[in-house]
Amino acid sequence: MEKRKLIWYWIITGILSFCIFSGGLAQALQLKQTIDGFKPLGYPTYFISLIGIWKMLGIIAILIPGFKLLKEWAYAGIFFTMTGAVISHIASNDIKAQIIAPILFSVFTVLSWYLRPADRKIISVS
């Protein structure tokens, strides 16, 4: 069972990492299509770049070995960013098919966090 869990961890984490990092890169570079997707939400352009940089740094933190506390913060940040995206779309009445991605990435973030191997967890010894 442990091997199956590890395989699912890397599949889910790989998909999540690719999607979040590439999306973050598009935001950091302020690609036109990405900026257009944010317009209905009313966020300033500089905020889009900032979120993109944070996403890329979060994925790097999750993927590199060690830094267990940093990984916890990175998972939390990505989860907050994705659920915040869902709420932003709902609050601005911009509910389209593109809202599915942040919902799915929120779920993938939780699954990656839950399935991560013991050497990537902070383990409390009582």
- Tell me, briefly, the overall form: elongated
The structure class reads mainly alpha
Based on the structure, what is the oligomeric state of the protein chains?
single chain
- The end-to-end span amounts to 26 Å
Q: Describe the biggest sheet?
A: none
- Summarize the helix and strand pattern as letters: HHHHH
Unreliable runs = none
Mean pLDDT: 92
Compute the CA-based radius of gyration. 15 Å
**How much helix, percentage-wise, in residues?**
over 70%
Q: What share of the residues does DSSP label as strand, in percent?
A: under 5%
Number of separate strands: 0
Helix count equals 5
Explained architecture:
With 126 residues, the protein is mainly alpha-helical. It is 74% helix and 0% strand. The chain is built from 5 helices and no strands. It has helices at 2-28, 32-38, 45-63, 68-91, 100-115. Helix 1 crosses helix 5 (100-115) and helix 3 runs antiparallel to helix 4. It starts with a helix and ends in an 11-residue tail after the last helix. 21% of the residues are buried. The mean pLDDT is 92.
Task: Provide keyphrases for this structure.
single chain; 126 residues; mainly alpha
Brief digest:
The protein has helices at 2-28, 32-38, 45-63, 68-91, 100-115. It is mainly α and 126 residues long.
Helix-strand blueprint:
Elements: H1 2-28, H2 32-38, H3 45-63, H4 68-91, H5 100-115
